[in-house]
Write a structure and sequence with these properties.
With 305 residues, the protein is an alpha/beta fold. It has helices spanning 20-31, 53-64, 79-90, 113-141, 152-156, 162-182, 207-212, 219-226, 265-270, 272-276, 287-300; strands at residues 11-14, 35-39, 68-72, 95-98, 144-149, 187-194, 236-240, 243-246, 251-252, 281-282. The longest helix has 29 residues, at 113-141. Bound molecules: nicotinamide-adenine-dinucleotide (NAD). Nicotinamide-adenine-dinucleotide (NAD) binds at residues 15-16, 18-22, 39-43, 45, 54, 75-77, 99-102, 122, 126, 149, 151, 194-196, 198-201. It is found in: Peroxisome.
């Protein structure tokens, strides 16, 4: 295909690539010239067990299509080993796709510390450890792309997923800060909130939806965000079933009281409509834009009237 976006010579680590979304990403990168580290612990969808079969199968699939790939069976909690595997086999690392995940869905009232901790360790600590081990390599070579896999459950909340919501929205903040820290070195970090039929969602969604929401609908976004030609950095995207959209923050114009005057709960109650009305709104894109109206008001000082 003319102008095909390729990854020749690039080394791509994909965690949790033995199934679902990760497998789909691995096959696409493998088909476009990348050398792929197919990481998968091979456990169950709630975190128990271990097997090499899932990663091995995807490596075979990539090789059968003429691509290059190696399997790695470490948990993302041992992120440095996964990055070492890329260095040992392919001598470099260019792209890190933090995709590995499990669920421990239970209402907050019934959630145990184990449910909480396991989700944190796989999604958050795992993404930290893999990305942290790759980070100096990406920076030193002046090119790197990192993806974190967030979720609508983190952005909007979802019943029975307090642990998962924390982890997934935490990853968005993580990505946004890394995006700032990596920008000068051409290391871009973006977050996706996908929806796809997989063993993770097959117990939640009806079969027709599972069949329709193929992971392959998510992968093109991941590939584009990771390509050298793509300058996007620090973004959050919802993606699935053929839909691709970017999110941003929206904040009401709010209500500003000059400093120095007494502001009571009653004053606030009276102005509440102004505080919460989105009729006019801002879209702060960074901490400076977020702070601007606050600083302007403070610098204006107390009212004279
Ligand atoms: P999946 O269960 O099909 O695949 C996840 C893979 O991660 C599995 O192969 C599993 O063995 C692997 N894994 C789990 N723990 C691991 C660990 N500690 N180390 C290494 N590998 C590990 O699920 P999926 O739907 O493809 O999910 C992929 C990612 O997308 C997850 O982070 C998930 O939270 C996220 N996500 C999925 C959906 C969806 O609709 N499927 C929605 C939002 C977010």
């Amino acid at each position: 295909m003319a102008n095909e976006l390729r990854f020749d010579g690039k080394v791509v680590i994909i965690t949790g690539a033995g199934n679902g979304l990760g497998r789909s990403h691995a096959l696409l990168f493998g088909s476009r010239g990348a050398k792929v580290v197919v990481n998968d612990l091979g456990g169950g969808h709630t975190g128990g067990g271990k097997s090499s079969a899932a990663a091995d199968k995807v490596v075979e699939e990539i090789k059968a299509l003429g691509g290059e790939a190696v399997a790695n069976y470490d948990s993302v909690e041992d992120g440095a080993k996964i990055v070492q595997s890329a260095l040992d086999h392919f001598k470099r690392v260019d792209v890190v796709i933090n995709n590995a995940g499990i669920l421990r869905d239970v209402s907050f009232a019934k959630m145990t510390e184990e449910d909480w901790d396991l989700i944190y360790r796989v999604h958050v600590l795992g993404a930290f450890r893999v990305t942290h081990a790759a980070w100096p390599h990406l920076r030193d070579q002046g090119y790197g792309r990192v993806i974190v896999t967030a979720s609508a459950a983190g952005i909007y909340g979802n019943f029975g997923q307090a642990n998962y919501s924390l982890a997934k929205l935490g990853l968005v903040g993580f990505a946004q800060t890394l995006a700032l820290e990596g920008a000068k070195k051409n290391v871009h970090v973006n977050a996706i909130a996908p929806i796809a039929g997989s063993r993770m969602t097959e117990t939640i969604l009806p079969k027709e939806l599972i069949d329709a929401l193929k992971p392959e609908y998510v992968t093109p976004l991941v590939a584009w965000l990771c390509h050298e030609d793509c300058s996007e950095n620090g973004g959050l995207y919802e993606v699935g079933g053929g839909f691709f959209g970017k999110l941003r923050w929206e904040r009401t114009k709010g209500k500003t009281f000059r400093v120095g005057r007494s502001i009571t709960p009653e004053t606030l109650k009276q102005s509440w409509d102004d505080v919460v009305s989105f009729e006019k709104a801002d879209h702060p894109a960074n901490v400076n834009e977020s702070m601007a109206p606050i600083l302007t008001n403070v610098q204006a000082g107390p009212s004279r009237g």
